[in-house]
Sequence to fold (387 residues):
Amino acid sequence: MRCDLTRRRLGRWAGAAALAPWLASCGGGGSGDSGVFVLPATATSREDGYLKAVQDISATYHPPGILAGVRVAGEAPWIRAFGLSDVARAAPMALNSTFPVRSVTKSFTVTLLLQLVQSRQLALEHKIGRYIAGVPNGQLIDLADLAGNQSGLADYSMQPGFLDIFVKDLLHVWTPQELVAFSFAVKPAFLPGEQYQYSNTNTVLLGMVVEAVTGQSLGDALAARIFNPLGLRGTRYPSSAELPPPTPTPYAVDVATGVAEDLPPISPTSLAGSGAIASTLADLLVWGDALGRGSLLDAALQDLRKSRARAVTNGPEYDRYGLGIGQIGNWWGHTGSGVGFQIATMNLASRNATISVMVNATPEGSRRDLNLAQELFEKLAAVVESA
Fold:
């Protein structure tokens, strides 16, 4: 989960299936479209570049299915579905598919926290011990340390006690308190602010802070302050693995052989504020724009969010990571990966451009640390920036 279990092999999953041949381009303009469509003969060279980027990823890494969208100010959006939602049924990927977005959730959780800073309901300098008891170094770690992955707290999702239960019962229902307890049993790796270390514990704790301050569940607070204001009708903070159809089957794919194995669903409660959200491509494009440009925050707070960025030495391959937002080149946004789904949504403010990618596979074998959504994002970004 990266939320961070793609770094581990959680066992052999039943249901191996031969990877079906890729479809031609699928897509259209609306979030409710599905089915197979051929790229128009009048496609521009830019569109050809986007399509080639997808084909390169397909030929190299063999993911079963991809959703990809590019929005650039002053241009028609490019929104497409490729490949298969379900290999065994040869079901094409639908544009309105609901995907778990994994660690992209962190960007929502931290944005919500920053909104509470903006309304002066809390401060980034507040120590986590003010809100949550029992946190190691809780009187030293402030909320900014948590938002920027500089707390030193162990990642609960990598602890043997958590993994023992998780592997045996993927649908086990967890409370956030149960999750962070696995982290609290481990000595912090460093004092807050000394280093960067990606840890899912950080944003689970921030979700708990949001609940303590607002008196709402994290899901209700997200809906009231982010989902509804942005019109994200296909985005939710679910309490179970059941999502509204169509939902793609998650796969582990051996990128060397192209063999894909279907994976079972996992309970979003095992991720909480670090990775529980599910969304659609249409909504993710809206969110990527809001996240990158800071439309839900005042300018000073958005600038602070980015100015706190620190070089990344481990974890997802950002160049730098700020407060719940990562930088890749000149683009800002967030990625997610784990147990059969990989996501990226990034914004280039100077071009008012947003790219979102959703893939229903996580790599296995020698390339298991790859994020295929990020790989495709970088190719699509190169096309945008070449214009």
Remarks:
- The first strand starts at residue 16 and ends at 17.
- The chain has one domain: 5-386.
- Residues 5-386 form a domain with the Beta-lactamase fold (CATH 3.40.710.10).
